[in-house]
Amino acid sequence: MFLQPVPLEKSFRLINHGPTVMVSAKHGGVENVMSASWACALDFSPARVTVVIDKSTFTRPLIEGSGQFALQVPFASQAQLVMAMGESRKHNQEKIHQAGAKLFYQDGFDVPLVQGCAAYLVCRLLPEPHNQQAYDLFIGEVLAAWADERVFRQGHWHFDDVDDSLKTLHYVAGGQFYLTGKSRVVAP
Amino acid sequence: MFLQPVPLEKSFRLINHGPTVMVSAKHGGVENVMSASWACALDFSPARVTVVIDKSTFTRPLIEGSGQFALQVPFASQAQLVMAMGESRKHNQEKIHQAGAKLFYQDGFDVPLVQGCAAYLVCRLLPEPHNQQAYDLFIGEVLAAWADERVFRQGHWHFDDVDDSLKTLHYVAGGQFYLTGKSRVVAP
Questions:
Q1: What angle (nearest 5°) sits at the alpha carbon of residue A182, between those of residues B18 and A21?
Q2: Whole-complex ipTM
Q3: Burial, B7: exposed, middle or buried (Cβ in 10 Å; 0-12, 13-18, 19+)?
Q4: How far apart are CA A40 and CA A37, in angstroms?
Q5: Is B93 within the bounds of a domain?
């Protein structure tokens, strides 16, 4: 395993570049995973995120019931899995298995995570009924975060020296993604 | 000019891949522009977006006062300007000028736009005082959108055949961006 903890105050960097994520949750012993393009950092400290979860999704009542969810940032090599998990109305347990993916748990957190992703953020739901009902908008406080040290070290992504399979994904529509591209550093 | 209108129901695709944006607004004759990493699509129809705007920013009262703002998706060639506009507490008029950038207006919309960006979304603020106060979270309904036809045509980005300067930007931290990378299409 290549996972290393990421300090909470740096966890926004895991999604700051706008990658597509998968959202996972568990309630009453039922686990599920769905893909989501509309996840975003909301605050540095406390670390918070937003994610849009449609009322039709199988995962939404798991989040509302348990008060927890995780965002995971898939690698480009997982693009097929991300598309399969895009069938968000369904209980995707069989599809996860078919795709050769496995769920796992980090010690102390009863939120399922998809093995082999670039980064993970386990979140506590901050209930905001109006946002959830009117906008399908969920707010989470990040409780813990981890990233794959092959691509994220010392608080920064390092994509320039890895194979394309270890880049992250940026979804557009219709099965089309862009991989994370070249680094560019600009003096402030 | 290369700008072409983008149908509202396709406008989410302009930011779905998670690019860094610049936020612009005008109130009482005062124009400003600031950079923001935390902008995200919220709904397809009506097309809506979220954007996080700190209380310390110069632009926030312009949005609250006018009830309008724009998101623009800069090209990689504008990375230096994006960093300069990151000084969000300031009235950045002089910096825009120094950077050789110009503001312009589209017919019918009194919201300033930064010339030479890849895409634009002009939005009406949907006032949500609790979100704005507690989370610095602003919700906008997209009123009109445009994109540069060199990179966005028929509802899709076309980055694979353009120079790096015409890619979009994904900010991490400390002046470091990633350019939008290679396209990958996965059958659903």
A1: 35
A2: 0.96
A3: exposed
A4: 9
A5: yes
CB contact under 8 A, A178 and B17: yes
**Over the stretch B47-65, which tens digit does the pLDDT of each residue have?**
999 999 999 999 999 999 9
Question: What H or E segment, with its residue span, contains residue B180?
Answer: strand B176-185
Return phi, psi of residue A94, to 5°: -70, -40
**Structural contact between residues B4 and B34, judged by C-beta atoms closer than 8 angstroms:** no
H runs (alpha helix) in B2-146: 59-66, 79-84, 93-98, 129-135
Q: Which residue, A145, A113, A159, is CA-closest to A44?
A: A145
pLDDT value for B100:
81
Cα–Cα distance, B154 to B12 (Å, whole number): 14
Number of domains, chain A = 1
B13 at interface of A, judged by CB pairs closer than 8 A: yes
At residue A38, does pLDDT exceed 90? Answer: yes
Mutate to test the interface with A, among B52, B139, B178, B180 (most CBs of A within 10 A): B178
Distance CA A53, CA A60 (A): 6
Range of the domain at A105: 3-179
| Residue ranges of A 23-52 with Cβ closer than 8 A to chain B | 37-43, 48, 50, 52
A185 inside domain: no
Distance CA(A43)–CA(B50), nearest Å, equals 13
Q: DSSP letter string over A55-69?
A: TT-SHHHHHHHHSEE
Is residue B140 less than 8 Å (CB to CB) from chain A? no
Token pair in block for residue B88: 């969000």
Q: Is residue A187 part of a domain?
A: no
- On chain A, the residues whose CB falls within 8 A of the CB of B177 are 183-186
The rounded radius of gyration (Å) of the Cα atoms in chain B is 15
Q: Give the Å distances, CA to CA, from B106 to B4, B20, B24, B109, B120.
A: 11, 22, 13, 6, 10
The CATH number of the domain holding residue A58 is 2.30.110.10
Name the residue facing A156 among B19, B20, B172 (closest C-beta).
B172
| C-alpha span between B169 and B147 (Å, rounded) | 15
